[in-house]
Amino acid sequence: xxxxxxxxxxxxxxxxTAAHSxxxxxxxxxxxxxxxxxxxxxxxxxxxxAEPGGSGEHRPAIRMEFTDVAPTPVRDRVRARVTLTGHxxxxxxxxxxxxxxxxxxxAVLEDSDGTRASVGLEELDAAHPDxxxxxxAGMLTHLLDDHSDLVTLLLRLVHPQVPQxxxxxxxxxxxxxxxxxxxxxxxxxxxxxxxxxxSPLDDVEQSGAQIQALFSAARRRSHRNTxxx
Length: 229
Hints:
Elements (H helix, E strand, L loop, with lengths): L7 H11 L3 E5 L2 E5 L11 E4 L12 E9 L8 E11 L11 E12 L4 E4 L1 H6 L9 H11 L1 H6 L13 E10 L2 E8 L3 E7 L10 H14 L9
Parallel strand pairs: 3-6
Antiparallel strand pairs: 1-2, 1-4, 4-5, 5-6, 6-7, 8-9, 9-10
């Protein structure tokens, strides 16, 4: 059965929404902005379509880089990178006071495996951040720190069954409105498995019931995927 997944545009919006820092490159200067406080930078950026004829090339170029880092101590913690490029129509401000107008160039989403996808302006405008994006880090760290036994329980839902000798550690890697992703760390390398929720979430308040449904399904499984002692 095909699993529902966030679109590339939704992933970009979610990464921006959850970002607490970004790197801005403009006028030859590279600036680290570390006080986003989870505020979507697109709230202060007005992205405009590129003008015909490439007139934007005469304006200062800007590149904004975001890194999506797993909140749990998994191997290879960088989950994805997002790069927005364009040309400035108004001076850039990082004070959160004034909005900045940017002639949109492109948005690129790069996964940890090197897969790249370009997202257009219309797609970006139409997409909504995942409702769990602002809360994901806290939810995953709480699950790992206070309920690690339940993470192991979820291994019962992994197909094919996980060989006991193969997996050294299982950690929650990501969560979105469609499900939870676990990273199974093996002695050599790792692999990620996705466990879909019974139905997609519309808001964060629905997450508790959906997560409990996964735990209940895992308890009903007759076979056990367990980690070695």
